[in-house]
Amino acid sequence: MILILTPEIGSDSPEFRQLSDHLASLPKIRTRVHQEHGQQQTLTEIYLIGDTASLVVEDMQSLPGVERVVRISEEYRVLGRHKDDQRPTHFDYNGVRFGQDTLNVFAGLCAVDTPEHVEAMMKALRDNGQVCTRMGAYKPRTSPYAFQGHGKACLPWVFELAGKYGIKVIAMEITHESHLDEIREALEKTGQPTGVMLQIGTRNTQNFELLKIVGRQQELPVLIKRGFGITLDESLNAAEYLASEGNRKVVFGLRGMKTNMGDPHRNLVDFAHVPVVKRLTRMPVCVDPSHSVGSRNRAPDGILDIMHATTQGVITGANMILVDFHPAPAKALVDGPQALLMEELPLFLEDVRIAREAYLKRVALYRGKD
Ligand code: PEP
Ligand code: MN
After folding, report:
1. pLDDT category, 332, cuts 50, 70, 90?
2. Which ligand has the nearest atom to the CA of 135?
3. How far is the C-alpha of 273 from the C-alpha of 248, rounded, in Å?
4. In ligand 1, which atom is closest to the CA atom of 335?
């Protein structure tokens, strides 16, 4: 059960103390307080854990400082959607809104290589009205001998270039807690010219200790990818780890499942799960067509498989697209064969716009039938 307090109730107010004393007297109930610090106000929620079945919603509703009570029916306590749950399904970060009703494109390099390539990418994004990108600095690779990413060394110039081209959010995978510190330090040293959305890759979806550390900071939002060989429920529980530690600025990413049943795609595209994740949780949902499809193969209609997969995600309500581009794919150090080309960016964005419009028309169609 969640008690949502009236916004003006601070933890040093008499109402809060009265409420805490009452909750402490309830048998077999533990509490956990979560505070969300917004620009104008701080929102406080108290999670009641334990024998909550015996509690009556109306009784809890009448306690001092309580605005609303949500009875938790699902497993994902913080991120889940519960009955009569009107908690927000969006968050704002560095001037960009991420919600179940918005759509942001993160086109960029799978791996940062040269300043020239990063600059060409960011310039193309700015020229096409984009404010988000993907830039991998820490790359988890199958072979220990493969390029592992430039790591910490590239962060200052990547962030400065982002500032130069008005990029507000960079999705960047981290594979170790030290990377979080390195990113925060580089952002600070360069004067916060941009923002970073930390990416938990599919190989680390169930790295619970990493999730706890990333979840304990509330500054940077997180994109957590679905684990490639685990159930959806297991991946949603992994996302819940982040939120249970305090960070609920979480986007859930679908990137395909590892099975040869998806051949010739690199992974079996799972974008039909976009509406499922939106129904089960309050997280915005991202699709990654590049790592799902993994090639530049083209259908007889002239459209790349990657673009078909992208629009399949968008027409079903995806809120974010993470997609690999490269100015010179033959020279890319990671995943060149699946990269889209600079000249394909306007086409890609127009295709996404068409699919988004179709999605919104579909929503209006069904709403009209209510
Ligand atoms: C990536 O986005 O660069 C990546 C490695 O993706 P995934 O974790 O889904 O394989
Ligand atoms: Mn890649």
Report:
1. very high
2. 1
3. 21
4. 3
